[in-house]
Every structure is written in structure tokens, then in C-alpha cells.
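Collaborator request, handled under Task 6.
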Amino acid sequence: MKMANSAGKLLGLVLIILVNHKCYGQLQVGFYKGKCGLVDVEAIVSSTIFNRFIKDPTIVAALVRMHFHDCFVNGCDASILIDGTSTEKTAIPNLSVRGYDIIDAAKAAVEAACPGVVSCADIIAMATRDAIALSGGGRYMVQTGRRDGLVSLAKNVNLPAPSISVSQSIAAFASKGLTTTDMVYLLGGHTVGVAHCSLIKNRLYNFQNTGKPDPTMDLFLAKELRRRCPQNSTTDNTVNLDQNLLSSLVVDNSYYKQILMHKGILQIDQELALDPSTQSTVTYIASGSDFRTQFGQAMVKLGAVQVLTGNQGEIRRSCRATN
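C-alpha cells returned to the collaborator:
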């Protein structure tokens, strides 16, 4: 009987060890609770983002884009932040990424209160969540526990292009473990932000080498965009991705309403509303009331793509360089 009891206790101990091992290092809400004494690191990041947001609300689009560009290349490991002559920052799709100074500020504030504990990858995720919440997108719970990557190479950057087809986009997102529905919600990040004229001139003047504009674009919008983006201009102006002027800085479902009215700016945006595989989802989101919740859930899934946890990677002292 004693041997049986001892065996049972041993088995229980083994199970506890196995369960703890399985959970160790995995992303979880409140990962940093208790790791910095009474310091609330998420509140520190939130304060930094709030102070920047009230001065410049366009940081929302900047941080959403940075988070996406980071996660789509070798996972959410803050590799996009590393400086260097051939790092991810130097890849053509990332040359217009901004917001690095915001992450630096948040990292500095966190390090001052709790040095060597909070990863840059988590700071990107938290900062993006806070910016989205400030712009009306709802505050979702961010899972933390990411570690920072050790590799950042421009040659690894292979991001979906704005002119990509819906089927190609579905495949790109699927390669990251994201569903078609996730993709439609995540592209809703285009509810804020701008696009450079150079990305849409083909739609305005020579769509698919026809010498004509994209026939799926609203005629009035096409006329306005041609005025904003002259064909032979050397100035690369910008246009709002959400053509509803009242909500171009608000994270809401207006983007979906616009593309249903053929007012999508990027080719992939407009095709979302036309392709049979995504049209019904776009229509549902445009007329629904749960975009903020669903968008938040999609952002949580994006933030979990190929993360480093446990003893993988490192906790950088500076977000701009490996230790």
C-alpha cells in the first residue's frame, strides 16, 4: 500500500513537472505580473503611447504596420527594430515603416523601472494594442512572454504586395497559421493610415497594362485620386486608405463599407470586396457591430505568429541591437 501511495505521489509529481514544462515560456496574459515587483510594465507602455498619441494620432497606423511587418518575417521577434546596413529595416517594403522612436521611448521607460525583463517584441505588441484602443478600436488583452530575435536580414523580408490577388493573400496568411477570416480582419488595419501614390498609379492610369484605370474603382474616386496623384509627378503624395474623412483616423469598420462602394485604395483592398471567397465576410463586417472584438482577436493571433519563448532568443537591452 505504501509503495502504491509512493508511486502515486511520484506520478503526480511527474505530471506536475510535465504540465509546467508544457506551459513554461508560452504566451499568456499578465506574463510580467510579479516579475517586476509592484511595477506594472503594461501601464508604463500605455502611458508612453498615450503621450505620443495625443500629439500625433497617426502613430496608430504606424504601429499596426510595424507589428504586421515584424510578425510576417520570421515571427513576432522585434527583428524589424535592429539597426544595420542589411537588416530588415533596410528592405524596400520597410523603408517607410516608422514609429521606431516610440518603441525606444517605451523600452527606456520600462527599463528604468524594471531592467532586463521586458522584451522589445512584447513592447511592440503592447504599444500596438494601446494605440488601437486610443483610436476607438477597443482594448483587447495582449498575451506576453515573447523573446527578442537574434537575426535580422533584409533578404528574409517577403511581405505580401499591395497588388497581390486574394488567393495569393490567403496563401500568404495561411503560411503564418492565419485563416481567411483572420486575413480579412487584419487587412481592416487599413481603416487607418495612408498609401503613397506610387503604389496605386497603375490602378489610376494603366491597370494591368490596359492604358486605362481600374474599372472596379468608383469613377469619382478615380478622378479625385488622379488629381492627387498626377501621372508624371515626381512628388509621391499620400492618400487615406479609408476614404471616409470622418473616420480615417479611427479604427472601425468604415474601411469595409468603403470597399463595398468600390472605394478601395489598394488593389488587394478592393478585391476583398469582390472575390467570392471574402465578399460575404466583408459584407458581414461592414454591417455588423462586433468589428472591434473580432479585430482584436485577429491581432492576438497575429501577435502569436512564430514567437520565441522560454529560453529562445534574448531580452535585448536596446531594441536596436542584439546583446
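The cover message to the collaborator said: "The CA atoms of residues 60 and 261 lie 25 Å apart. The chain is about 45% helix and 5% strand. Please let us know whether this matches your experimental observations."
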